[in-house]
């Protein structure tokens, strides 16, 4: 963070040779704006603010989740309803903490920066973009590092524990079980929290930048200018009302009421938020206004498993083939949905509409994070119950909570990938506007080479992460095997394993291995920008299209858990039919394994039991899918967002000094 902050200052300060004299405004040449050196200083400060806010939110989220894990386990002795309330409220604390802290820090920064900038709103909100860059850069390391940590432990624990030693999941005899449970907090709590915080910060900054060069900024209309922040404010109130339905108004009395209660959270929050946004739009926006649209002003008016499980009969290879086929096919519907959203929002209010659409998705971020954090809290509650040797009845209750928690993981990743696509496009539009590019012509060689390199980046990035997970998992497997083979009495349960060594393997691997992919993402725009803004615009377009496709493929890998997991607990045969059509890739492999383990139907019992060749094939498929759905896929969201917001922050430098290399030829 410190090194990159220095780069921001040096690059942006050099635009005007570190001059302290006022310069003509970029968009309004008849007016004078603050010097580039001021933009460099305030952008650097905003970057640090965003990064620190992201780090603190992730740290506090992990702290809350760690306290909540054991409490949820203990409450499960009284019933599934009591345990649900503890787990959900704990997730809600993190959700509201992140949403509120992100909003208040951004609002304070705008007002403090405004003391210096005065009427120069163009410079003010251009410097604020550093806030989004800071949040997203820390999200990259949270996602990549957290994903490597949790999947190295998960894969090592499953391969040796389940496949080779045939012991239950979360068995305290497994040396990797502590690292596995810690990894849930690192990857699913801190990683997801920082990811969604980055999306929130970037979408807010993109909307503010576009608004500052539109009629809101030109006419200095403060309330309409802060319309993006008003949306987020109303979102917090809407989520607070929604949370009461899960914890106070509707009491959970049975296992089959858990998942409907979580789904109602999304429905209720959407309804309440729709009313709230309509009210804010009516009160906060003028009847007609103009939005900057690629060099022109656009006038806007008031808005009117079972298949996968069966494939395990013939081994792991066919299991993998079936899962991949489902994953590729499942990209279709989400892409059409995103495309429709982009078309409609852009038609209404150009790139500002796209940015506001992303904020609309993220307006219920508190509820989204609440139900997402609920997942790993419930998962670890089950692990604690198993390791503590508590009764089988308590483990059944925590498993029921965990089943619904797998659903919430899909919901969280859905927020992430959908908002990432919209946010990245909005940031791309803001960058193109700031770099004074009217069109991006793919037939131009400068643009086309950037396009194909950008399309390649998500695959290079994914390859680096997958290799890192594989290397760390290999060390974990070797260590777990060593302990089982050399520690007397470990399998009999008379001796404790060396948990600390396994934790150290995951920790060291996550810290070391996250640096290369992080450097790839953060340095690529800086290097390509030297070739010119046209080449960089091609890079961003290629990475956006390719990254969304690959990211959606990985996201849809876990979407099947929405439909599948309850049938494992409740034995609803009809739900299994939905699972057949929804299961795909990592989620399909994961759920095929759970389907066999649960033995909740006659068909499932013919594939089992645990330890059978069919079950071992399912476990292998699950371990292959783990890094796909929990490491590479989620990290791609940040790749496309981070490169876009970084390009926007450095746009003044690239517009002034870019294209140097091409000038030599």
Automatic annotation (TrEMBL):
Top-level enzyme category: translocase
The GO molecular function terms of this record are: diphosphate hydrolysis-driven proton transmembrane transporter activity; inorganic diphosphate phosphatase activity
Entry superkingdom? Eukaryota
Where is the protein localized?
A: Endomembrane system
Keyword terms, alphabetized: Ion transport, Magnesium, Membrane, Signal, Translocase, Transmembrane, Transmembrane helix, Transport
Asked if the record carries the keyword Transferase, the reply is no
A Gene Ontology cellular-component term: membrane
Give the way it sits in the membrane.
Multi-pass membrane protein
Q: Does Membrane show up as a keyword for this record?
A: yes
Check the UniProt entry and state the signal peptide residues, or none.
1-17
Q: Which PANTHER family match?
A: K(+)-INSENSITIVE PYROPHOSPHATE-ENERGIZED PROTON PUMP
Instruction: Supply the name of the protein.
Output: H(+)-exporting diphosphatase
Q: From which source organism is this entry?
A: Zizania palustris
